[in-house]
Protein 1
Amino acid sequence: MAIRLEDFLFPDPKDSEDEQFKIDSPEKADWALRKYAQAKRIVDEYTRQRDDMIVRANEWLAEVSKPYLDTMNRMEALLQEYHREQLRQNPKAKTIKRPVGTLKSVTRNKWHYREDDLLRWLKQHRPDLVRIKEEPNKQQLKKVAKIQGDRVYTEDGERVEGVMVMPETEFKIEVE
């Protein structure tokens, strides 16, 4: 079997299989980054294959379900028409139980709002029904605040209560 150029140019460090393996040189870091990139490419490919399979499975489901969904829609329309006729004859027959299933008619009041008009009217006539949401403007605070240690201060040196600053280090690996 022929050796790959990458394996020839960048052989595995001698102790890479050892549980105590440690990256202690730029060459070992390069080797580890190559291994990381290789594994990432494989996982990305598996993810792409999975996504393709999901798309195909959804297309298959839509195709095989279409005639049954059409039947369901047609039967629903016919059953709704039948139920309406039964309600016309007996307005109290909102539920019709049959051995195979139940037909139900539920009437609810659906509220539709024009938010601006409603808010204007409530402010004038029923301010107790207006909710005011107070919250800190954190973006603006960050622009005007000064940080000393883990504390936050205003421009004129007053300490801001209720906030602390904790440094967080994020580790990232970027490979092509």
Protein 2
Amino acid sequence: MPENGDRPGSDVLRQMLRDGRTDVSLVDRIVEDLARQIIDGTLPPGADVNSVELAKRYGSSRTPVREALLTLEREGLVDVPARRRPRVAPVTLTQARELYEIRASLHTLVSELIVSNADDQDLEVLHVWQGHLRDDAARGDVDAYFWHNVTFRQAEAEVSGNRQLTRLLSSLGLRTLQLRHVSLSLPGRLDRSVEDHERLLAAYADRDATLAAALTRSIIMRGLQAIEASGWSGLDSD
């Protein structure tokens, strides 16, 4: 049976999908496998999802597959139309822009709170993750960089000291991960991202809330601009 345990980001993805549950069902495994393939682009927007083939792959009936697809439909990653084959949900330009605007606003608040609330030990946690990002970028490892970047942002939310804000960011779901992976996969993005995060950490160290907030918004919105400029085939016009 497919299992993602040794792949980068598995713990992060499971935490997001299971919301603290420790039990693991077949449905969970199918959801994780398909979610990862959609996030990393193995299954691009518009791709068919064959439930019969999935049932064979997992050695199961079609019932767990249907349950997994409905879970992914609630996350916005899959369309399950009546009497038609499920497919990876398309992403419209408006959806992408709205998601990035929300993320930019929420993470701007995170950065302001970090300056106000985080101590030197908290900032050291961010420096540890930044070290992973530097190493990943040096190797050109997009997948490792992406998942470490996700963890960096989660660590920021935690050290901001606002639990409700952390939960709100988590509720944005998996669609944002799909777009972030696309953005970081584009040429030159890893090196630029590392440099941007170095400046952000320097602003935290200087306790400069205005600069930290501006850098965070710029970093996030630059990701959207990169997707738009790339002509990514998965992005539909409205």
Protein 3
Amino acid sequence: MTMERAEILELAFSNAKQYEMRGGGCSQCALSGIFDALGVQNDDIFKAATGLADGVGLTGDGHCGALSGGVLAIGYFFGRDKADFADMKKLVKGNLLSKKLHDRFVEKYGTCRCFDLQTSFYGRFYNLYDPQEMKAAMKAGLLDTCSTLVGEVARMTTEIILDARERDGR
């Protein structure tokens, strides 16, 4: 039985959100929700996404880890293969789709930098390496807010991938 488009998008959202609520690591959670919805299993790319959480290494000083996970998923489907390394034209599709995700993200949230997102949501940034800061972040609702954001990014990315695959006739 084939899932309808709306079911696929909802699966990406709900799985990504639940993964974030359960285990954290926004980049891995978004990527996993997308892959679940699209029937992909790839532990190597999942593992490679580890350090992209919370703006790279839990620093906040980079773009949102969920956005990174979405870009990795787009690259998985539309990226350049190593065999085509010398062909710069093979970069175009994956980059255009990644830009589309970036632009949608920024349109929705006003920024893509983790530090700025937290400041927008909570009026400040939380240093997740500090146990007291982590506790304060949880009390402020970081887990609920970020898990919803992760789910939304998974849904956005899945929609971009489905649209591109439909245009390509896949």
Protein 4
Amino acid sequence: MTKLCLVAGGTGGHIFPALAFAEWLLASGTDVTLSFVCGSRPLEKEIYASKGIVPLCLPLSGSPFGAAGIGSRILRWKETLSSFFVFRDFLRKEECDCCLLFGGYVSFVPLLSCHLGGIPLIVHEQNAVAGKVTRLAFRLKKKIASGWGECLPFAEGTYTPTGVPVRSFSPRDPGEAWPRLGTGRAFPQKPIIGVLGGSLMSERLIQLLGYVIRDEVLQKCTFLFLGASQQVQAGLFSGDRPENVLFVEKQWDMTDFFSVIDGAVARGGASTLSELMLWGIPTVVVPWKQAADNHQEKNAECFERIASGEIWREDEPLEFLKEKILRVLRKAQNVRKEFSEGDESERLWRLISSSIGREITNFG
């Protein structure tokens, strides 16, 4: 039996691929036992709890590399040192055969621990641009699995494209899925545009859309915002929220949301784009300008090449955003929304098996 440790933290964009891969492993009958590791942020625990998983939570609140101010950096490095010993003891107790990192600030400690302990380790990089931990792992000659066909700045052939593992879905009839979202409104008899700003929701994305959704043409659409807090809603649409704007609470199971929308406007997180691509949902991608190494821009460019995607950048005229939303709606009318199932998890498992020198068994 293979003992596999999955490390993922920070945001849903890192955690959901780990959970999707775990889901695939268990469903395929693979002879493996799984353990999960994350950081100490409440969001991480909430996501794992939604799947009934109790991970090892390292006493980390963030990356020591991104802390502002000397005091914060000292605190983060103290947390890092403490987490190193916690994780080292965990590895010894669990006797893990391999550790698979899905990114986020929590990944640095497991990388260092596994490297010093001689435990096989693979980094799955969801983004088209490698993060700091992925680059360090590359220098340490660890295997890199890439979510896209490119993983900058690495040369082609130095990493293994596997795709991004995506949660399994069983699509529902839109009429059945709509009341489950709890909007309190009747099912709209007009196109629905889903707005996804990531597991933390982007207030800036809502602000940008706030300028265009009152347009006469776009009034013929319903905009369904996912996961915006009550505070954000009140601040942006105080007193005069347009009739074509609806909000739904964050969903850890996206089946109902994806089942009702015809198109989407989304940030450029790799996990979100991979799920939209699987569902075949035409999407306007609005890359977050402050993403590290501009990785959301690169993700968006990959998505545009291989899916029904459009890119709108925040320094472009808002009129262009409106035009791209309308273009996405036209695509939605011509593209039947259906699954495009891939074998991302199987490719990732093959990479793991080759790393620990074991044959793959018991999956169909």
